[in-house]
Write a structure and sequence with these properties.
Layout (H helix, E strand, L loop, with lengths): L15 H8 L4 E5 L6 E4 L1 H9 L4 E2 L12 H11 L3 E7 L8 E9 L5 E10 H50 L4 H10 L8 E7 L5 E3 L10 H6 L12 H4 L8 E4 L4 H6 L3 H10 L3 E9 L2 E9 L9 H67 L8 H32 L3 E8 H18 L3 E4 L9 E4 L1 H18 L5 E9 L2 E8 L33 H11 L3 E7 L3 E9 L10 E4 L4 H4 L9
Parallel strand pairs: 13-15
Antiparallel strand pairs: 1-2, 1-6, 3-4, 4-5, 5-6, 7-8, 7-11, 9-10, 10-11, 12-14, 12-19, 15-16, 16-18, 17-18
Helix pairs in contact: 4-10, 5-10, 10-11, 11-14, 12-13, 13-14
Length: 605
Amino acid sequence: MIQRPNDRMDPLIIDASIGKHLALAPVAFAVIEPDTHTILYANALFRHLQSVHEIWVGVPREDGRPAAANLTALLDDAVRSRRTIRDVILEPPDGEAARWSCTVWPVADLGDAPRQLVVEVRNIELIEGAKQRQRAVAQELLLGALRAQDAAGDAAHTSERSKFLAEASRDLALSLDESATRETIQRLTLPRPGTWCIVDVVESNGAIHRLAAIHPDPAKQALARQLEARWPSGPDTPVNTAVAPTALEPSVVTEDSSDALLRAAHGEEGLRILREIGFGSLLVVPLVVRARVEGTITFVSPKGDPPFTSDEIGLAVDLGARCAMALESARLYREADLLRLAAETANRSKSQFLRTISHELRTPLNAIGGFAELIELGIEGPVTEKQRDALARIKTNQRHLLKLITEILNFVRVESGRLEYRLGRVSLTKVLADVGAMLSGAAEQKKLKLVTAPRERDAEVIAWADPDRVRQILLNLVMNALKYTPAGGTITMSCASVDGNAVAQVADTGPGIEPKQLESIFEPFVQLSAGLTDQSGGVGLGLAISRDLARAMQGDVTVESALGSGSRFTLSLPRSSNAASQRPTAARSKATRSERASVGRTTGD
């Protein structure tokens, strides 16, 4: 029997702070004197159990350990054995549903005999429920840890894949040179150790070219180089079947793939060399650009390695797409460079031809003019009036041809960048007055008004430019207006300072220019339709020369026009600031017409 607890707690057994916590413990807990079985301390739950059941009868354990006949016997057993007796199942009397698990452990002092016995009694159902909850929590924690581990692995894999592709893209973008791009591609491979690749590309003429194979093992490099010659290189080779056995899709070929392996190796000899080198599997990835196969990359894994995984195939496809775009960009760059060189060569040949033919034509034309003058003077005999009229026509046409040849020579000089520019202060006001005086007779002859618009201020408009080139530009613009303005019309010249620039304008009341022609009339040898021009001739170089001259002096020539209302050409030049401190300088135009055009075209003649 277990005695009721004493009224007074033993301070050696438990102090007040510990007792407070033990009283609230979720298990039945007590400290018992071993000899008399007197309860020295018991928490509320234990006191409740003790008041209801004086004795618990033990039941057999499933693990075969002996059962305790009752709690008293269990206490005595703990005293005798001086060891802890754990998890003895106690069955309460009839009518009590709960089953309990009891643990008793002796508490010894400096001697050997136990001084007290500590008894803990737990509800088995509560213990099992707690264990189940604990197992559920542990399972969730384990699953969460596994998910976190998988997510971390996926993130690391994605990061490595992105880093690999970024490095490959950077290497491929380092140069647009085709040979450098191919050399970069033949060195690329997948991250799997020991993997190498064989690259076949389709040339512009349809022939297939194999790039140099690079093996990671130097001892096998000689064998890898033998594979370079194992490809039919004629233009009649069937690209779709020979380069990419599965057209636009990648394919994995292993040792037991028979026909596919033979096709991927490009014949018996290629297969023999591959087997001598040793391989696990082949991953053939087509290089596709705009649904067109431009070659293949065949990735070769080391002997004994498993086949390529789906992740590796996806990575190889992404790498192949970048290689295909790099090859296409390099090819287009090469072709564009060849076209540029051909255009420059043709342009130089054209300029040389124009220069040569112009000089060759000038000599006989000068001779024609000279002989016409001699005949008109009567040196070769008397000249009738009809003959004088004929001689006048000869001289007029001779001067016109000389003028055309001069235009061509000027254009060639401007286009070749060989003109020198002596920059200084140029009064646009004065140049316009000189041009008006020079062409007033031509305007009167065509019954046109050539006027200069009054300035708002008396100050002159000063540009920083070459005076001879400025006069040439304005002459061309006014003569162009005289050519296309019908009789009775007006041509107005003006100048002003606008936004830091010195601006001269020539406006006419002609028929105007169609919007689609505003971009083309500044091109050489371009004229408006025959219905808008008279028969005074010209080769369509005046406006082209004018714009090139202006741009060479850091200016421009632009046009505004409306059909039926006329056109207005504008010459813009840098304004001369602090003119007193500036000195005339000589400059030489180094840029060709095509290079100066990159400065930016505005809508113009």
